[in-house]
Write a structure and sequence with these properties.
- With about 300 residues, the chain is mostly helical.
- It has two domains: about 60 residues, no CATH class; about 220 residues, Urease accessory protein UreF.
- Helix content is about 60%, strand content about 5%.
- The chain contains 14 helices and two strands.
- It has a two-stranded antiparallel sheet.
- Helix 6 runs antiparallel to helix 11 and helix 8 runs parallel beside helix 10.
- The longest helix has 23 residues.
- The termini are far apart.
Length: about 300
């Protein structure tokens, strides 16, 4: 049988002594590749081509690699405990967490009607004052001391802090606001993320638990450090106040975010000051804001409960 054109070209191009060796080498390489790709992620292959030169090929099969961390390893720079703490703080202090914060303005509604707040600049000034010299700072101090008492399992101090925090609210509506949010925060957190020590802490308070004390208790019960708990709480309070102001003035989303960004250093400074404060350092110098919460009780047209 005469050779085909392909056979003829190969037989004339490759000497008879080289062809069998080359074909056996290529066949062996194919078998090696088939077997090796399934067991190792990097394969180096040496082939002899028809010109008898040596060619080296490196194959890296992508499907054999994995990004799964080893057990106990850091994930994105955080340990598993740190990741869980961040996840819970983001959930508990998110606007979507159902504590009813959207229905309260903390007196901002009356301030808008009275003309104290008319735009983004005046809203920022009002909130900065309330945060640094009013209820924002005081609530931060109560969170700090309730967190520390709960972490140390000191029921007597915890009860004193809870009673003082409940008595420190300047108006009936603000009392309703902070106690309702505190109760809802504990009930929902306990239902979804129960902690063995939380019930004992709640019992030790022996009375109404206001919102900042509730956040301190739950954070301590889950072993979440004080500093991020305090900072996240103050951010959530400011964000809710801005949301109320945006609906009342009204403000657009961009202006609202500008106000939130401008208050960032005030939140950080208030957190640092509250973290170092004692209960004797409590005090408010925002009488106009306290008056707003009192006047709101008799305001004719209202969108908010405080």
């Amino acid at each position: 049988m005469p050779p085909t054109p392909m056979r003829r070209s190969l037989s004339t191009a490759i000497p008879g002594t080289i062809m069998p060796v080359a074909m056996r080498t290529i066949t062996a390489m194919i078998i090696m590749i088939t077997a090796a790709v399934t067991i190792t992620p990097v394969i180096t292959i040496t082939m002899t081509n028809i010109a008898t030169t040596i060619t080296t090929i490196t194959i890296t099969p992508m499907l054999m690699t994995t990004n799964e961390p080893e057990a106990g390893a850091m994930r994105g720079g955080m340990t598993e405990g740190e990741a869980a703490a961040l996840y819970r703080l983001m959930t508990w202090l998110s606007p979507s967490f159902p504590v009813g914060a959207f229905s309260y303005s903390s007196g901002i509604e009356w301030a808008v009607e009275a003309g104290d707040i008319t735009d983004a600049a005046s809203l920022r000034g009002w909130l900065a004052a309330v945060l640094t010299e009013g209820s924002g700072f005081c609530d931060g101090v109560f969170l700090v001391h309730s967190h520390r008492a709960a972490s140390e399992h000191d029921g007597a101090i915890l009860k004193d802090v809870a009673e003082l925090a409940a008595a420190f609210v300047p108006s009936r509506e603000r009392q309703l606001e902070t106690t309702s949010q505190g109760r809802a925060f504990i009930e929902i957190a306990r239902a979804a993320w129960n902690s063995p020590g939380l019930d004992a802490m709640v019992t030790a308070c022996d009375g109404p638990i206001v919102y900042p004390v509730a956040v301190g208790l739950v954070s301590a019960a889950h072993g979440i450090p004080l500093a991020p708990s305090l900072h996240a709480f103050l951010h959530a309070v400011i964000a809710n106040w801005i949301s109320a102001g945006a609906r009342l003035i009204p403000l657009g989303q961009t202006d609202s975010q500008r106000v939130l960004a401008a208050l960032e250093p005030d939140v950080a400074a208030t957190a640092a000051r509250a973290g170092a404060a004692s209960l004797d350092d409590l005090g408010s110098a925002t009488f106009r804001a306290d008056l707003a919460s009192l006047r709101h009780e008799t305001q004719y047209t209202r969108l908010f409960r405080s």
